Amino acid sequence: MPELPEVETTCRGLEPHLRGQRIHAVIVRDARLRVPILAELAHILPGLEIRGIGRRGKYLLMDCGRGWLILHLGMSGSLRILPSDALAEKHDHFDLVLESGFCMRLRDPRRFGAVIWTETDPLRHPLLAHLGVEPLTNDFDGAWLYRHTRGKKGSIKQTLMDSHLLVGVGNIYANEALFRAAIRPTTPAGRVGASRCDRLARAVKDVLQQVIAAGGSSLRDFVDSNGKPGYFQQQYFVYGRAGEPCRQCGVPIRLLRQGQRSTFYCPDCQR
DNA sequence: CGCCAGGCCTGCACGC
DNA sequence: TGCGTGCAGGCCTGGC
Catalytic residues per the record (predicted)? Predict the structure, then answer.
């Protein structure tokens, strides 16, 4: 997916179209997502007013008054605002038709996403209840990272990507943050010292904030809520650059696998 | 054809 | 025995 910046960008883009809008209808074209879409949504949602939209980790939360819609974009999901009569294309699985004449449309080719309805506190939903700290808040800093990694033998990269510890950092930004902090991704988390934790926490915040400020991303097929492509010209330091020269020192970037995900790093800059 | 891709849940094996 | 931890597998489609 979309990592945190893409979800945040989507959230900000959707907000003005959704807040205060009443739901007119629901169209489910294919309910088979990671969590099957509840057919009853077509009866539950119409008539409800969307009071607001927020984000927790990579989950979007839509306050509908008598309940909440929780959306997740999986690996390949996107949400767009379109005229409600716009022709649906392949992989357009779900529409929230609004009284404004527009609709919010979910497209998700790989169907790893989710549309979930809950009538209780969404933060207590089993999928969200155990999520870790938000990296862009003051709760997360070097001291926090240091405290929460003591004794951990797993690699610092996989630890960064553990959403039960820290939300929102996926494969791309884990690689990029570790480069910026000059830390080797394979280092056991518990052996990253206090000052390196400071650098790393700072790098995580900087990377995420920069991408949000750039208005999206980086992912080739990411589109924001208006259907505009993300900022994919953005340059990565290491992600996807195996064999290419490090932008800092010129040494070829290396590729290895950690937990079945690709890790890219500079053997010279990251120790 | 095989392999790779942004996520993340589940179940299993292991060590304390 | 129980818990936390770490890993592999699985869910899907599309692009190279």
Answer: 2-3, 58, 261
- Dist CA A36 CA A112 (whole Å): 10
Determine if strand C comes within 7 Å of the CB of A91: yes
- The residue that minimises its CA distance to C1' of C9 is A260
pLDDT above 60 for A34: yes
CATH 3.20.190.10 residue ranges in chain A? Answer: 4-124
Give span(s): CATH 1.10.8.50, chain A.
Answer: 142-265
Q: Region A210-228: what's the mean pLDDT?
A: 66
A98-120 burial, b at 16+ Cβ within 10 Å, e below that, comes to beeebbbbbbbeebebbbbbbee
Please identify which of the residues A55, A56, A58, A80 carries the catalytic annotation.
A58
> Which fold would CATH assign to domain A142-265?
Helicase, Ruva Protein; domain 3 (1.10.8)
Q: What is the pLDDT of residues A175-214, one digit of tens each?
A: 999 999 999 999 999 999 999 999 999 999 999 999 888 8
Catalytic, A36? Answer no
Q: How far apart are CA A62 and CA A70, in angstroms?
A: 6
A152 is annotated as contributing to ligand binding: yes
Question: What is the tens place of the pLDDT at every residue in A110-150?
Answer: 999 999 999 999 999 999 999 999 999 999 999 999 999 99
User: What is the CATH topology of the domain spanning A4-124?
Assistant: N-terminal domain of MutM-like DNA repair proteins (3.20.190)
Residue A261 beta carbon within 7 A of nucleic strand C: no
